[in-house]
Structures are given as C-alpha cells and as structure tokens.
C-alpha cells in the first residue's frame, strides 16, 4: 500500500510540475503581443514555421512546406516575408492539384509554388505600395495592388497582415498565387 501511495504521490508531483511549467509558458505567451490566426496566438518570439504549426487554418501549407523540405530554411535567420495561403485558399485550386504537388516526384514544382510566396526581407503592410513589384525567393515577381482598405498580392487578398515572427513577417492570404510553370 505504501508503494502504491508513493507512486501516486510521485505521479501527482510530476503532473503538478508539468502543469506549472505549462502555465508559466502560457503566462509568458499571454504577456507577449501577438495575432490570433487559426485559433492560435502567433507571437514575435517564435519563428515563421513555429507560428504556422499552431494555426488550424494553415495545415495544408505546413504539410506542403514539410514535403518540399523548406521547413528548416523558413526556421532560419531570414528575414522573410511570407504570403501564407489558408487551407481554404488551397481548396480553391482545381481538384487534385494539392495532392499532385505533394507527390515526391513533384517536389521541384511544389518548391517553386511555395518559394513564390516568399520574399526576402521583412515587409509589413505599411511597406507595400500600389503597383510595387516584389521579387520572390523563387525568382519571379509578385505585384502589390491596393483597392480601398484591401491589399492584394497578384489578386490574393491579405486577410490578416503583419503576423510578426522572430525571423520575418507573415501575411495571411485568401488565394494561392501560382508562378508561371
């Protein structure tokens, strides 16, 4: 009986320690200003990939970044500006497009599509000007357009701007922009 009580006491202490550590982390994150995206708080102390991993709106993008082998790059020093399509944006593509791009034999095409959404540097929404051309990591250009309060990148509307990360900034977009292939 003493052994059983001891096991419960040790388990309880471990659970309390884990709970306290989680509470401290949650408390630290709550103090840090961030932006809610996909049900998760995106905070400047995390890198672009770490923030994206928490977003339920970006599971397709995260899967694609992993399949292309770009996660490590986007966790690097940067800085990067990422125009991040949501799951709904990927769903707008013709049926089978995402599945085809995720196949290992299409890794080069997937990489081209994803790097077309990344611009070197840290560009906040205030830095984006109507008619501005942005050269992507992929090598082609994106065009910024403004209509009223809407900022668009090649016709994709920025729905959530200025998601700051330790290595750049992300702008959530409502459409996947495609390079010429």
Detailed description of the structure:
- Residues 1-23 form the signal peptide.
- Residues 45-177 form the FAS1 domain.
- The chain has 181 residues and is an alpha+beta fold.
- The chain has two domains: 1-31; 33-173, Roll (FAS1 domain), CATH 2.30.180.10.
- Helices cover 38% and strands 25% of the residues.
- It is built from seven helices and nine strands.
- The strands form two sheets. Strands 4-3-9-8-7-6-5 form a seven-stranded mixed beta sheet. It has a two-stranded antiparallel ribbon with strand order 1-2.
- The longest helix is centred in the N-terminal third of the chain and has 30 residues, at 2-31.
- The radius of gyration is 20 Å and the shape is globular.
Count of helical stretches: 7
Main sheet characteristics: 7 strands, mixed
Tally of discrete structural domains: 2
Tell how many strands the DSSP assignment holds.
9
SS-derived structural category: alpha+beta
Distance between the termini: 70 Å
What percent of residues are in strands? 15-25%
Low-confidence stretches: 1-29
- CATH-scheme architecture of the largest domain: Roll
Secondary-structure element string: HEEHHHEHHHEEEEEE
Percent of residues in helical segments? 25-40%
Mean pLDDT: 85
CATH class of the largest domain: Mainly Beta
Shape: globular
CATH topology descriptor of the largest domain: FAS1 domain
Q: Give me the Rg, rounded.
A: 20 Å
In the sheet with the most strands, the strands line up as: 4-3-9-8-7-6-5
CATH homologous superfamily label of the largest domain: FAS1 domain
Helix/strand layout:
Blueprint: H1 2-31, E1 35-37, E2 40-42, H2 48-53, H3 59-68, H4 71-74, E3 80-85, H5 87-91, H6 97-101, H7 107-115, E4 118-120, E5 133-135, E6 141-147, E7 150-153, E8 156-165, E9 168-173
Helix pairs in contact: 3-7
């Amino acid at each position: 009986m003493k052994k059983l009580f001891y096991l419960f006491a040790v388990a309880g202490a471990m659970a309390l320690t884990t709970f306290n550590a989680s509470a401290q982390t949650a408390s630290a994150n709550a103090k840090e200003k961030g932006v809610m995206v996909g049900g998760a708080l995106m905070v400047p102390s995390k890198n672009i990939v770490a923030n994206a991993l928490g977003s339920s709106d970006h599971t397709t993008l995260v899967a694609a970044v992993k399949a292309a082998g770009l996660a490590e790059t986007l966790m690097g020093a940067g800085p990067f500006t990422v125009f991040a399509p949501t799951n709904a944006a990927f769903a707008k593509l013709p049926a089978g497009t995402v599945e085809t791009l995720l196949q290992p034999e299409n890794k080069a095409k997937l990489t081209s599509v994803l790097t077309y959404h990344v611009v070197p540097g840290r560009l906040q929404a205030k830095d984006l000007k109507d008619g501005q051309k942005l050269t992507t990591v992929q090598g082609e250009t994106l065009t910024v357009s403004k209509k009223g309060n809407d900022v668009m990148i090649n016709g994709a509307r920025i729905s959530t701007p200025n998601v700051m990360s330790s290595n750049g900034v992300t702008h959530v977009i409502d459409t996947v922009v495609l390079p010429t292939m």
